[in-house]
Design a protein that fits this description.
Length: about 425
């Protein structure tokens, strides 16, 4: 496919939400019923956000936890992976979720976070991916997306925000190097798993396991770009094992994509991108860094996808892997249209569509049922319940738009109808 084809018009097919609720378990449906009630109106959602921190953990676990979190332990997340695979979602982007950014007290140590993150590669993503390959059969091996381990820089070192803010200053350089070394240790697990699995399955065209660097609030991002660039240079000589993130709501994002392209060309390595719109709009103190309007963000995001796919399909690509991480129906429809035109199986295997667990389930359903999407994953946070509660609150605050787009009365009614169908 040429870049001209990538830039050509997309089809007008509209996503149909269909009966995506029928694919969920009764307890997940119950959780969505609760979300529907919390999102009946903006004031009700604001009230839910306000009382959320005071809601006892047992109640959260009973009501909505399973909808958004993979579990407390690796065996729990393994079961979540099985549940997702029954819906046609064959892999996960797992994130041991701890919000350690500003040096606040955590319920686990940094060493535990690092060890659990490594174990999530060896004891979770590798066996799950192998299981999925066995399920689809080796002839369809490239229809199993990679398993991703998310590296959230602010969760991997004490006092992370300060280190990231001052990473160029001599007093902080050793700590920044320590953060880099920690990431290297975790990615080395992915690299050796990929090497072993490739011997077993030589027809595979994408990494089996990728490490993905999450994007943070804007003032920390310059350091995160540097970190992900150093990791590309170290690990991505052959393929994009390391995937970075670009937040397309930032005005600097499109020039940044071009700049990173130039660095990769000079450095002789491959880039991997997870393109997101960006989750920190509500807490960003400098509104000037963000696109002026939502439609500017949408246009910038969509052109980021088109340009990245064109790069991947070109004669000398610098981008080796792309994750289209969005709940936006128009964006995912456009990405599917473009993917349909790609004939190179190596490129096809390296483009993955993604949503957060518990969000955009109608989009996920549309992609599976109506667009025959195979390379599709869910971002699955997991870890100590106290910390995942913080994650849930962030999701409610930051993704209020996504929550409301498919919620309120329509969701409550849909849940009741679906539960009724299950019983009778
Ligand atoms: C798999 C996955 C991984 C993710 N990882 C990250 C990550 O590492 N870092 C991160 O920051 N986010 C991450 N996100 C969240 C993401 O950035 C978005 O917040 C979320 O997906 C909602 O955007 P959307 O593309 O689904 O589309 P929509 O719901 O259509 O768009 C909502 C988004 O549009 C933008 N927006 C809204 N109003 C305006 C406005 N007035 N002006 C300009 N822009 C506006 C904001 O970015 C907002 O979040 C991830 C999402 C997914 C699905």
């Amino acid at each position: 496919m040429t870049s001209a084809t990538v830039h050509s018009q997309t089809s007008e097919t509209k996503p149909q939400t269909g009966s995506y609720l029928d694919t969920l378990s009764s307890s997940e449906l119950f959780g969505y019923g609760v979300i529907g009630l919390c999102t009946l109106s903006r004031p009700i959602l604001n009230l839910a956000i306000k009382i959320f921190p005071f809601t006892p953990l047992w109640m959260i676990k009973l009501l909505v936890y399973k909808n958004y979190c993979g579990g407390d332990t690796i065996p729990d997340v393994m079961k979540t992976g099985e549940r997702l695979s029954q819906r046609g979602i064959r892999n996960m982007m797992v994130s041991y979720t701890v919000e350690a950014c500003d040096g606040k007290k955590m319920s686990v140590s940094i060493d535990t976070i690092i060890n659990e993150t490594k174990k999530s590669v060896t004891d979770l993503l590798v066996p799950h991916t192998v299981r999925m390959i066995k399920e689809v059969g080796v002839d369809h091996i490239n229809e199993v997306p990679p398993g991703y381990v998310a590296l959230k820089p602010t969760g991997l070192i004490e006092n992370a925000a300060n280190i990231l803010l001052h990473y160029k200053e001599p007093a902080y350089q050793a700590r920044f190097k320590q953060l880099y070394d920690t990431c290297v240790d975790i990615i080395a697990e992915c690299e050796s798993a990929n090497a072993a699995l490739l011997k077993q399955y030589p027809t595979r065209k994408a990494p089996f396991i990728c490490a993905i660097v999450d994007a943070e609030r804007n003032d920390l991002q310059q350091a995160v770009y540097k970190l992900q660039r150093d990791l590309y240079a170290r690990f991505n000589k052959e393929e994009s094992v390391v995937v970075g993130t670009m937040q397309m709501y930032l005005k600097e994002s499109s020039p940044n994509l071009l700049k990173e392209d130039e660095y990769a060309r000079k450095g002789g390595y491959k880039i991997g991108w997870k393109l997101v719109r960006g989750a920190y709009i509500h807490s960003e103190p400098d509104r000037g860094v963000i696109q002026d309007t939502k439609s500017d963000t949408d246009a910038n995001y969509n052109s980021g996808i088109k340009n990245t796919l064109a790069n991947m399909c070109s004669k000398s690509p610098t981008v080796g892997h792309l994750v289209v991480a969005s709940h936006n129906a128009d964006t995912q429809r456009m990405a599917s249209d473009l993917l349909d035109k790609i004939t190179d199986p190596g490129v096809k295997a390296n483009v993955v569509q993604a949503q957060l667990l518990g969000m955009g389930d109608n989009i996920t359903y549309y992609l599976i049922k109506h667009r025959n999407a195979k390379n599709l994953i869910k971002y699955v946070p997991w870890g100590p319940p106290l910390e995942t509660k913080e994650y849930l609150l962030r999701r409610l605050q930051e993704n209020g738009d996504a929550v409301r787009a498919d919620s309120g009365w329509p969701l409550v009614k849909g849940v009741v109808k679906s539960l009724f169908r299950k019983v009778f």
